[in-house]
Amino acid sequence: MLAKYLKPDQVTHSIKIAIACLLGFSIGKIIHFHIDQWLIITIIVVMCAQINVGSMIQKSYMRFLGTLAGSLFAMLVLAIFHDNALAHSAAVTLAVMIFSYIATTNKNYSDAGTLGAATVAIILIGSNPTIITAIERFLEISIGILIAALVSQFVLPIHASVYLRKNQANTLKQLREYYVTIFMNHNPINIKKIYFELDEKLATSLINQRKLAIEASRERLGEGFNSGIFKRSLWCEKEIFRSINFMHRAVHSSTKIEQVLSTQANVTDFHQAICCFMDNIAIAFEKNTAAQENTTLNTNLLKQSILSSIDTFSLDEKIAVNAFIFCSEMLVERLQELALNINDHKD
Hints:
- This protein is mainly α.
- It is 79% helix and 0% strand.
- The chain has helices at residues 8-31, 37-48, 53-81, 85-105, 110-125, 131-154, 160-183, 191-217, 227-251, 255-263, 265-287, 299-307, 315-346.
- Helix 3 (53-81) runs parallel beside helix 5 (110-125), helix 3 (53-81) crosses helix 8 and helix 5 (110-125) packs antiparallel against helix 6.
- The longest helix has 32 residues, at 315-346.
- The two termini are 41 Å apart.
């Protein structure tokens, strides 16, 4: 029963955090830091919200820079003002202002700003702060960051590229569901509501894909990542969504068009082939295998069948039908290109 609610990656990540904390605790006892809890606290803070290797590498690097900057700032204050409590309070206030500004200026530097401010506060607000204790705090936090990065990379690593493939697979499944709903489900439905819901899901998915792609590009070990292939795949996904929407608008621009396209056997076969191809691509993304080619997607037969049935249509209706055909051709091309991108990555 419990296994139903547990996600394997989250369980793995929790185990990794426990291993990192145990390792940090052991090192802290060996080195005999005066206040060794900051080593453990650092590991927990660094690892808890970062499940994949790519995000951990970038954030660990920036957190180390923030820790170094904060420690140097605190040591400079101690060297000049020694144990002057008023000077320490002013320094902490100034450091919080500076590092908070850095944390909100650029996402890449946000972690450096946060750790810089925290390090200054930890050092100067502690009891009897000295340059020696400042060095110890710097070492504790730095060792904690290093342990977190090493455990994330080498102990049961969870790669951003794997999450990216799952995200892409889920996007294809959502597109397939949308396609089935608007072209193969003949029950009365609120298409507009479904469109806005799916549009929101896809927008979130595409944003997550960009974020995961950046993180995957930072992973030097494990699977190689080709950002060029990803960008082409992302463009194909967006073009597929656009093609489906234009096809849907063309079909429902006239009752006559809707009746003709709903009774054409070649149109039905085409819809089924599209859904099958989307399934194959989603599986290829999810399992990291080559995408199977679909030889049944023949838009020439679709085009001939439809055009032979619209002699009595008005000019506007013929334009809409041709728009449907054009978008169906674009849909097939983008799906084929997406499949080729997967296979290029496998090569």
